[in-house]
Design goal:
Number of strands: 5
Order of helices and strands: HEHHEEHHHHHEEHHHHH
Structural class: mainly alpha
Distance between the termini: 63 Å
Strand content: 5-15%
Number of domains: 2
Shape: flat
Number of helices: 13
C-alpha cells in the first residue's frame, strides 16, 4: 500500500511538471500577480493547519498536494502578457526550493517556507510597482526592457550549500571504520552493547593518538621562534551578483558610484553605492557576505540593531525601487541616497 502511495505521488509530480513545462498560453500580468498571491496563501496554509496533530503520512500527503498546487500556479516557464507583448518567466528557482522543502526535515522546513514566501512577496511588490507606473512611463521600450530584467533576475536563484571539507573527511573516516568490521550477523542485546562500548573506546583512543602525534610533530616549532604568519590570500567576493576583487574596498566602490553619477547613470550609481554599504558592514562584521544572499537576507541580519535596520530599510527600498522596478532614477534620488549612505557609514 505504501509503495502504491509513493507511486501515485511520483506520477502526479511528473504530470504536474509536464503540464507546467508545456504551458504556452499567455496570462495577463494581473493574472500572474494573482497566481503569486494564491501561491503565498497555499504556503501559509501548510504551517497553519495544525500539523502537530497529524500523523506523518497525512502530513506528507497534504504538503505534497500543496506544493503541487504552487507548481501548477507558477510553472517552470510561464508566458506573461503586458503592454501587448509576451514575456517568458523563469520560475526554476521556485521549483528548486519546493524540491528542497519536500526533502527537508520538519525542523528545516519553516526556514525554507519563509524564504520562498519572502521571494514571492518581493516579486509581487515589483509587479505592483509596474502596474502603478505603467501609465506614467514615457519610454515604453525601456519599460519592457526593465520588466524583462525583473522577471529573469538571477538574484532570485539560490544554489544549495555543499558540505564542508571537514564533513566529507569525517564521512569517509566513518565509512572506513565501518568497513573494518565487515557485515555483522545479528547479535544478542548484551553482545551488541559490549561491541558498541568497545567501538567508542577505540574511537577515543584513536583520537588521542592522533592528537599526541600532531602535538609531537609540531612541538619543535612551538618551542622555537614562531615565524611570521602569512596572511591568507583572500579570493574575490560576489555581492548581489557583483564580482569584487579582494583589494576593492567600500571607498573604491563609492568612488565608482560617483563616477557613474557624473555620467548620468543614476540607477547604476545607486546599485554600486548600495553594494559599497554592504561591503563596509561586512568589513565591520555586522553582516556576513555570501554569494547566495539577497538584499533582504542582509537586511534581516540587521534586525537586532534597530537604528541601523531602520536606516538600511529606507535605502533597501530605494535600491529595489530603482534597480528591480521601473522607477527612473533622478539626480535628486541619487543625492538623497548618497546622503543617507554617508549617515550609515558615519554611524
Amino acid at each position: 500500500m505504501q509503495v502504491n502511495v509513493r507511486l501515485i505521488r511520483t506520477l502526479s509530480t511528473v504530470l504536474i511538471i509536464l503540464v507546467c513545462c508545456f504551458t504556452i498560453k499567455a496570462i495577463p500580468i494581473n493574472g500572474y500577480k494573482e497566481n503569486i498571491q494564491r501561491a503565498v496563501n497555499v504556503l501559509d496554509g501548510i504551517s497553519t493547519s495544525g500539523s502537530e496533530y497529524e500523523d506523518p503520512e497525512t502530513l506528507e500527503s497534504r504538503v505534497h498536494s500543496a506544493l503541487n498546487s504552487v507548481r501548477t500556479l507558477l510553472p517552470l516557464r510561464l508566458n506573461v502578457e503586458w503592454g501587448g507583448k509576451q514575456y517568458i518567466v523563469d520560475n526554476t528557482w521556485l521549483h528548486q526550493l519546493l524540491g528542497d522543502y519536500e526533502k527537508a526535515s520538519n525542523a528545516d522546513r519553516p526556514n525554507l517556507e519563509q524564504r520562498i514566501r519572502e521571494r514571492l512577496v518581493a516579486v509581487d511588490e515589483r509587479l505592483a510597482e509596474i502596474e502603478r507606473g505603467s501609465g506614467r512611463q514615457n519610454d515604453k521600450a525601456e519599460a519592457h526592457k526593465r520588466l524583462q530584467e525583473i522577471l529573469a533576475r538571477s538574484e532570485y536563484s539560490q544554489k544549495p550549500e555543499e558540505p564542508s571539507a571537514l564533513s566529507r573527511l569525517w564521512a569517509r573516516f566513518v565509512r572506513w571504520l565501518a568497513s573494518l568490521f565487515g557485515r555483522q550477523r545479528a547479535a544478542e542485546p548484551s553482545t551488541a552493547i559490549a561491541i558498541s562500548k568497545a567501538a567508542q573506546v577505540f574511537v577515543v583512543l584513536l583520537a588521542l593518538a592522533v592528537i599526541v602525534y600532531v602535538f609531537r610533530l609540531f612541538l619543535p616549532q612551538i618551542r622555537g621562534l614562531r615565524p611570521a604568519r602569512k596572511k591568507k590570500k583572500q579570493g574575490p567576493r560576489i555581492v548581489l551578483g557583483e564580482r569584487l576583487e579582494p583589494e576593492q574596498t567600500a571607498v573604491d566602490l563609492l568612488s565608482e558610484a560617483e563616477a557613474l553619477a557624473r555620467k548620468g547613470e543614476m540607477r547604476a550609481a545607486i546599485r554600486k553605492a548600495y553594494i559599497a554599504l554592504l561591503v563596509e558592514l561586512g568589513d565591520r562584521q555586522i553582516i556576513s557576505l555570501a554569494q547566495h544572499k539577497t538584499n533582504r537576507d542582509y537586511l534581516r541580519a540587521m534586525s537586532e540593531l534597530a537604528s541601523l535596520h531602520e536606516r538600511m530599510l529606507v535605502l533597501t527600498d530605494t535600491f529595489e525601487r530603482h534597480w528591480y522596478g521601473l522607477a527612473q532614477a533622478t539626480d535628486k534620488d541619487w543625492t538623497n541616497f548618497r546622503a543617507r549612505s554617508r549617515e550609515v557609514l558615519q554611524g
